[in-house]
Amino acid sequence: MPETAAMLDVRNPRTGKVDHRIAVASEADVAARAARLRANQPAWEALGIGGRCAVMARWLGAVKAQAMAIGEADAVDTGGCHTSYLQGFITMGNIGGWLEDAPRAFADLEFKAMSTSMPTVEVESQVVAYPLVGVISPWNAPLMLALLDAIPALFAGSAVLLKPSEVTPRVIEALFKTVALVPELAAVFDYVAGAGEVGQWVIGQADTICFTGSVPTGRKVAVACAERLIPCNLELGGKDPCIVTATADLDRAATAVLRGAVYATGQVCYSVERVYVHESVHDDFVELLVAKAAEVRLNHDNPRAGHIGPFTFAPQAEIVQRHLADAVAKGAVIRSGGTVEAIDGGLYLRPTILTGVDHSMEIMQDETFGPCIPVMAYRDTEEAIRLANDTHFGLTASVIAGTAEEAKAIGKRLNAGGIFMQDTFLTFAKLRTFGSDSFGWSGYGAPRIGPESLRRFLRRKSLLTQTGPVADIRNDHHLGGAK
Ligand code: NDP
């Protein structure tokens, strides 16, 4: 980065103060870093999956040595929640999982056979990695979501240029200290800091893009990728519903909904954002939920001790307040929480439960991304399914019923990529077995979990060899044609 690089202030979500600065990449920096990665990528791909695994195993060792420091940096960036401190270990699990799975993901991709339509032609497939993958990632779970795409891309043989969120740069800096310790990896894995403009420059350089973030930005990314005719994988927002049936164990349901909705201050793409409860148990469920919510502690005095932290990104608190005000103006009743509290510079919201909600309210339609739980009564299963599917989004959904079979029968009719039965927040149970797609505004592209995740970064070529005589145009005879 040149000495004259523009600097950007970074706010600390716990203190509200600027205590960090980042050097913003210029368009020329982005181009230079992309060119370096592109030049180094052929040697990385030529290592083969075995050679790349050996390098990634050394990186795993470097991450292990820094796992605590990575977790601390993530906690400062995000304001701290339970998983922040685990991010170093989660990264180790991510790399370690791919060390086992990546060789299998390559299996069956290459074959050689004689053509069935032209029996003298041998057909051979070759897989080649996209040379340069651009990854653009958000401020929530900033490390996990940067690496969810970057790690399989590296295993696939691509070089990766990452553009993390400007809001949460500290954990990325901590991570790249470990990358620097592994020269073969540092040759093909780099990042550029800055805001949205820098993301656009990355799109201008990459051969394929993985984007995680909001729907409005995802649209801009998709348009920019379309202009360049490069593929893009989008993982966008959610408005994930949870259905609680009349037969459900209400205590279990309230426990699962509370965690699913307020974990990490609700700043999770697959947070529970709206709850539909059968009218016969609605009041009992709400009573239980309010009682449990009262026991959730803010972590302002000790980030390691409380249950939920401050908003990571201050403007998010304004969006949440706007949704709450809109709901109340249209007749909703706030049963707990409801007011953003400024404590020592951090912005906090206690679990906020609303009743009397309907689909005319923003809080039931748009992503809130805060610890809010709007609860709506439904009359019968058909209505519950109709309400749950009344959304532009489709990331995940959950169903809690008297039996798993009853829950699954409803789950099969919901439009979302991951459906959780008898619990919420089961997304990562999918890891390493198979992935799932998003529906609607929640994005598109192949699954980012499971073997398809790695295969997103591979292109197939056909090598066609004529083993017989070549065709002679003078022997071509046209039916009914001129002699
Ligand atoms: P944004 O869409 O605002 O930003 C995402 C990334 O894109 C950031 O790095 C941002 O940079 C960058 N960016 C901004 N403008 C542009 C542009 N014009 N071109 C290219 N890149 C750009 O999302 P947030 O960071 O606010 O993250 C929260 C959102 O992410 C929520 O909607 C959430 O649902 C979604 N999300 C989805 C997940 C999923 O897997 N489906 C997982 C987690 C979050 P900068 O921040 O520096 O401005």
What value does the Rg take, in angstroms?
25 Å
CATH class membership of the largest domain: Alpha Beta
Q: In total, how many domains does the architecture comprise? A: 2
CATH topology of the largest domain: Aldehyde Dehydrogenase, Chain A, domain 1
Structure annotation, total helices: 15
Task: Tell me how many strands there are.
Answer: 20
**Molecules bound to protein:** NADPH dihydro-nicotinamide-adenine-dinucleotide phosphate
Strand order of the largest sheet: 12-15-16-11-10-17-18
Mass-distribution shape = globular
Mean pLDDT: 95
How far apart are the first and last residues' alpha carbons, in Å? 71 Å
Name the CATH architecture of the largest domain.
Answer: 3-Layer(aba) Sandwich
Percent of residues in β-strands: 15-25%
How would you name the CATH homologous superfamily of the largest domain?
Answer: Aldehyde Dehydrogenase, Chain A, domain 1
Helix content: 25-40%
| Residue windows where pLDDT falls under 50 for at least 5 positions | none
- Mind summarizing the main beta sheet? 7 strands, mixed
Active site: 235
Protein name: Aldehyde dehydrogenase family protein
Organism: Alteraurantiacibacter buctensis
InterPro entries: Ald_DH/histidinol_DH, Ald_DH_C, Ald_DH_CS_GLU, Ald_DH_N, Aldehyde_DH_dom
Question: Main attributes?
Answer:
483 residues; alpha/beta; Aldehyde Dehydrogenase, Chain A, domain 2; 2 domains; seven-stranded mixed sheet; six-stranded mixed sheet; 20 strands; binds NADPH dihydro-nicotinamide-adenine-dinucleotide phosphate
Structural features, described:
The protein is α/β, with parallel strands linked by helices. It has two domains: 7-236 and 442-464, Aldehyde Dehydrogenase, Chain A, domain 1; 240-430, 3-Layer(aba) Sandwich (Aldehyde Dehydrogenase, Chain A, domain 2), CATH 3.40.309.10. The chain contains 15 helices and 20 strands. The protein has helices spanning 27-46, 48-65, 67-78, 87-106, 142-156, 170-179, 183-186, 196-205, 215-228, 250-262, 282-293, 314-329, 381-389, 404-411, 451-455, and strands at 7-11, 18-23, 112-114, 121-129, 132-136, 159-163, 189-191, 208-212, 232-235, 240-244, 272-278, 333-336, 341-343, 346-348, 352-355, 372-378, 396-400, 418-421, 443-444, 458-466. The chain has a seven-stranded mixed β-sheet with strand order 12-15-16-11-10-17-18, with helices on both faces. A six-stranded mixed β-sheet has the order 7-6-5-8-9-19, with helices on both faces. The mean pLDDT is 95. NADPH dihydro-nicotinamide-adenine-dinucleotide phosphate binds at residues 136-140, 145, 163-167, 195-196, 199-200, 212-214, 217, 220-221, 235-238, 269, 367, 369, 395, 443.
